[in-house]
Amino acid sequence: MSAETVLPIIDAHHHLWQLSAGPLRYPWLQDPQPHAFFLGEYASLKRDYLPPDYRRDAAAHNVVKTVHVEAECRRAQQVAETRWLTELNARYGMPNAIVAHAWFHTPNAEEILAQQKSFPLVRGIRSKPVTSRSPGESVARAAGSMQDPKWLAGLRLLRKYDLSWDLRVPTWHLEEAAQVAHANPDIPVVLNHTGFPWDRSEAGLALWRQGMKALAASEQVCCKLSCLCLQDGPWDYEDNRRIVLEAIEIFGIDRCMFASNFPVDGLRVSYDRMYQDFKRMSAALSATDQRKLFHDNAARFYRI
C-alpha cells in the first residue's frame, strides 16, 4: 500500500448539497439571477453533491473523517441544513463534524445558536461579517461588520455554547479580524481558505502576510490551508506551494490543517491532484508533522 493511501486525512472543509428535489434551497446556486462568485463561472456546481459524490472524488486518498462547513443555504433554513446533514451522517457515516450557520447581529442570534448547539455534530459556527469589496473601501461600524456592537455581542455568545468560529474574510480584513481574535482569546478561531491570497503580486502578498501575522499572534487562531485557487488562471503547484509553506511558517505546524473546499475548488483542480500536491508540498516534513497537517490538528480543533 502506498504512503499516499496510508496517510489518514480529515478533510477540514467541504460542502454537500442536494438541488434535485432536495429539502433546502441555495440562492447562490439556484436563483435565476445568481450571485457573483469569486471563482467565476460555476455552472458545473449546479448539481447534487452528496456523500457518494464526495467519496468518488476523494477515492484515491485515505479520508477517514470530514468536516462540513455551511454551504450558504437559504438563511431561514440554517437549522434545517444542520438537521439534513445529521441525517446524512446517520445514512452515510459523514460528515463527522458540522460548522453550522448563525448570524451574530440579529435579534434571534442566541436562539439560533442554541438550536445549532443541540445537534451533537455541531462544533462551530461560520458567520461571515460584512466586508468591503476592495481594500480602498470601509464598512467600519456598518450593521454586521466586525465593529458592530451587536455583532461582537453575538460572537461572544460562542463562549457560552462552547463553539468555535470559522472566520472567512478577504485579505484586506485580516488585521481587523486579528483585533477581534485578540479581544476574545477564549473563542477558538480557524481562518478559512488561507486568508484568500488572491493577489499574488509583491504588494498583494505583503498585505496578506501582514494580516496573517497579525492573526497568528493570537494563539487560539488556526489556519485552513485551502482554496488556493485564483479568480483567473489554473491551479499552479509552485505558486501555491510558496503560499502553503509561508502560511505554515507564520502559524506553525500545530495550527495549520489541509482542507479541500470541495466541490467548489473542483472548478480549478481535481481532488486527487490537490491532495497529491498537498503531499508533495509537505514531503520534507517529518511523518509526525505531516499527520498533524492532514489529520491531527483538525481532529483536535473540531473535537472529532
Helix-strand blueprint:
Blueprint lengths: L2 H4 L2 E6 L12 H4 L20 H7 L5 E7 L8 H15 L4 E4 L8 H9 L4 E5 L22 H12 L3 E4 L6 H10 L5 E3 L10 H15 L4 E5 L11 H15 L4 E3 L12 H11 L5 H15 L3
Parallel strand pairs: 1-2, 2-3, 3-4, 4-5, 5-6, 6-7, 7-8
The overall number of domains is 1
Q: Termini separation (Å)?
A: 26 Å
The CATH architecture designation is: Alpha-Beta Barrel
- Overall number of strands: 8
Described by the principal axes of the CA atoms, the overall outline is: globular
Spatial sequence of strands, sheet with the most strands: 1-2-3-4-5-6-7-8
Main sheet record: 8 strands, parallel
Question: Poorly predicted ranges (pLDDT <50, ≥5 residues)?
Answer: 1-5
Beta-strand share of residues:
5-15%
General description of the model:
There is one protein chain. The chain is α/β, with parallel strands linked by helices. It has a single domain (3-301), classed as Metal-dependent hydrolases (TIM Barrel), CATH 3.20.20. Helices cover 38% and strands 12% of the residues. The chain is built from eleven helices and eight strands. An eight-stranded parallel β-sheet has the order 1-2-3-4-5-6-7-8. The longest helix is centred in the N-terminal third of the chain and has 15 residues, at 78-92. The protein is globular, with a radius of gyration of 18 Å. The chain starts with a helix and ends with a helix.
